[in-house]
Amino acid sequence: MCNNFCVLLGKKFSCDQCPARFENYDDLIKHAREVHHHAIVRCQDCGKEFIHEKDRLHHVRQEHVKKTRFRENKNLYRHDV
User: Boundaries of each C2H2-type domain copy (predicted)?
Assistant: First the structure.
C-alpha cells in the first residue's frame, strides 16, 4: 500500500521527503519513524503499522471487516445437501 508519503517505483518504495528508497513498505515506515520522526499508526487487530490513518482504515476495511462479515454470514454460503 503506497500513499502520498511514498512513490512506488517498480518494487522500490521511495520517501517523498528525501531521496531514500526501500525494498519494502516496512523499511519505509521504519525510516519515516526514525529519520523524519513521523507518527506511525498501528492496526489494533493485527499490529501492522501505517504512516497515515487513512491507510490503516483502508487496511481494516479490506483485511478485517471482510473476514468478519464472511465469518458472520458463512452459513449463507453453505449448501445443504
Answer: 13-36, 41-69
